[in-house]
What we know:
The chain is an alpha/beta fold. It is 38% helix and 20% strand. The protein is built from 13 helices and 14 strands.
Amino acid sequence: MKITEIKTTPINIPLELGYVWSVGVNQGFSKTIIEVFTDDGFVGLGEAQSYEHAKLIDEVIAPRLIGVDPFDLAAAERLCLPEWQSARNIDDDSLTRAFGGVEIALWDIKAKALGVPLAHLLGGAVRTEVQFSEYFAYRENGENSIQDVVDYCLRKREEHGSTVFEGKVGFQDALTDIRLVTALREALGEEATIRLDANYGWSLLTARRLVKELEPLNISNIEDPVLGYENMAQLRQHTTIPFSTHEVNLPHAVAVGGPDSFVANIAVLGGIGGTLRFVHAVDVMGKDFWFYSGDSGIMTAAYIHLTAALPSIRNPHQSLLRWQTMDVIEGGGFRPHNDVIALPQGPGLGVRIDPDRLAECHQHFLEHGPCESISARDNGQYHRLPRY
Length: 388
């Protein structure tokens, strides 16, 4: 089998309402959908983290992979990426991230050719359902007060059986954050899981005060409470609440005693092979791992298959799936119910592109530009909600 063509399509995944976070308002995500074609008629699906990776794949990666056996993942990686020692000297991981999206498609081809689900190639499924969180935040023209956010979470529990909630803090004053989390705990009860995502929005001084107030509220995790592993290590002295981070420097984390968990994306880690290596290393070092959200159904399916096959992924993944208004796969995308999504059936990733939906997401990108360009600022000012 040989690779004959690699097609990239930049897309937008808009959100129904923009959500407020520590640097502004996010209104959606822009990705690159990847289709890898073979001479045997198989088509593998992948997804790169950014629309900017389309050009890199077209100009650098695709020419190197045409004619290569898609089963030979080691050869594909060797042709596309510098050796590990060289990569450490390059302050640009965009090639690794772009290749990571293509590499997902190669795994999809391999599993489809063998007629098995991807999880089967990864050792077999140890679970058939994978946990995802519900998400909460202040949103433009939506939840604009503490009570609004509380009511939203209660509706999701009633409508979808949600018991795991993660949401944005760190963009208003500390007292408002405490009031929000206190109200959520009181309304949702002790049985609900509450995780917070501060996106570096707190200074170390503010975070020290906040964790003392949050400790009695049984918070399961705070993501990126302060900037950098060193600050997290200092904050660790003041609380037992676990911390997670999007920064994926495991040796540094272990050396300074910073985060307890890593939250990443398959393409960011260089593909499924790189993710397997990273997750195993994280587990050996006594840390945890889960995936973040803001992806199409292709990447979400890859998350589910990996999680189904890896016992060491024990925690619910982040999920903005409920807010995403467009997707590229048949059926319109995944949505959790009772905190879980079932493992897709069928060979490979178990999902198929809907050509009309892909065209719609691409047209949104062409007409509106990438979501990143419209999400952060308005007339030079950060979006802020009024204080309460």
